[in-house]
Design a protein that fits this description.
This protein has helices spanning 5-95, 97-116. The chain has 120 residues and is an all-alpha fold.
Length: 120
């Protein structure tokens, strides 16, 4: 039996409908697979960020632990310099007691003048 033009159109439209339906199914599957892959990438990225933040926190904690030691070292250096300065002043006083007394007297007189308000 010969197919009519109308039947051919119906057959072609049915084929087109089937193809469109299959394309929609395939597109939905692709979208689902892409979402799964994106979710996995997000989980991997999240784990990497957490690891990096933990490393940064540990480095900060280590730095804070070392700050106390560094401050102690600097305090020791300052104390040594202070002792050296006091020893140097004491040696100067022993070598030149009259000069040291004169300088101390003059410094005291100047400080007293300044404290009283200048030239009164």
């Amino acid at each position: 039996m010969a197919t009519t033009t109308t039947e051919a159109v119906k057959t072609n439209l049915a084929d087109a409908g089937s193809s469109l339906k299959q394309a929609a199914v395939d597109a939905g599957g692709s979208i689902k697979e892409a979402a799964v892959a994106a979710g996995e990438q997000l989980r991997v990225g999240k784990a990497q960020v957490k690891g990096d933040l933990a490393d940064g926190a540990l480095a900060g904690i280590n730095a804070l632990e070392n700050i106390g030691g560094a401050a102690s070292e600097q305090m020791d250096v300052l104390m040594d310099k202070g002792r050296d300065l006091i020893e140097s002043a004491a040696e100067l006083v022993r070598e030149r007691p009259l000069t040291s007394f004169g300088v101390a007297f003059a410094a005291g007189w100047i400080i007293a003048k300044l404290a009283r308000g200048g030239g009164k």
